[in-house]
Amino acid sequence: MRIDVVTIFPDFFSVLDVSLLGRARQSGLVDARVHDLRAFTHDRHRTVDDTPYGGGAGMVMKPEPWGEAFDAVLGTDASAQTPATVVFPSPAGERFTQAIAHELAEAPHLVFACGRYEGIDSRVAEHVATRATVRELSLGDYVLNGGEVAVVAMLEAITRLVPGMVGNPESIVEESHADGLLEYPIYTKPATWRGLDVPDVLRSGDHGKVAAWRREQAIERTRRVRPDLLEG
């Protein structure tokens, strides 16, 4: 999988060199590259923003540097490139879910555009849509200072689903949202800790009872914490 990230804060993505994703980059499983948007400006101040048409507070990211950045990342001849999916993190976008993470984990080329200020000139996404698949995605119903935090979270969720990324594939099957439910409570040794005991069923050795208990607990936790997930 190839991943390109365009941002005005490339140092933010030093986190790509640590943990599982860092090892995946070193092994060649994931080819992740970070691009400084300011490298595609041509004035001495390296300007990437301007005032919004129609008035209003804040600044809007200019289309010119973004256009050149996408030319470099996608290539000017889209037919000669690997089909790409471009993600624009936005509080106005579709909510990012585990199902979407699975979809994007199958894409050969992902590009993430980290907006700042009031966002990116809307013509940029419109133009990119003529050359690639565009997804506007939101982590939730809140606003961040920029897209960088959202992109790191999405990258964690997506890349861990790439085959070979996680040592034990079963660990990404039995977890929250994998089957539409929150994960059941988990325990490890010792069996008793500060007066609290591990449920007897988990020490029974009866795999059928353990599976039934976990399913029951997952449903109950989902009903209590995220009842909206059970509506479907």
Automatic annotation (TrEMBL):
Binding site for S-adenosyl-L-methionine: G115, L139, G140, D141, Y142, V143, L144
Catalytic activity from the UniProt record: guanosine(37) in tRNA + S-adenosyl-L-methionine = N(1)-methylguanosine(37) in tRNA + S-adenosyl-L-homocysteine + H(+)
Location of the protein in the cell: Cytoplasm
InterPro entries membership: Alpha/beta_knot_MTases (IPR029028), tRNA_m1G_MeTrfase_C_sf (IPR023148), tRNA_m1G_MeTrfase_TrmD (IPR002649), tRNA_m1G_MTases_N (IPR029026), tRNA_MeTrfase_TRMD/TRM10 (IPR016009)
EC numbers: 2.1.1.228
Span of domain tRNA methyltransferase TRMD/TRM10-type: 1-231
Keywords linked to the UniProt accession: Cytoplasm, Methyltransferase, S-adenosyl-L-methionine, Transferase, tRNA processing
Top-rank taxon: Bacteria
CDD domains assigned to the protein according to its UniProt record, in alphabetical order: TrmD-like
PANTHER family: TRNA (GUANINE-N(1)-)-METHYLTRANSFERASE (PTHR46417:SF1)
Oligomeric form and interacting partners: Homodimer.
Family statement drawn from the similarity comment of this UniProt entry: Belongs to the RNA methyltransferase TrmD family.
Cited function: Specifically methylates guanosine-37 in various tRNAs.
Protein name (database record): tRNA (guanine-N(1)-)-methyltransferase
Organism, as annotated: Agrococcus versicolor
Lineage: Bacteria, Bacillati, Actinomycetota, Actinomycetes, Micrococcales
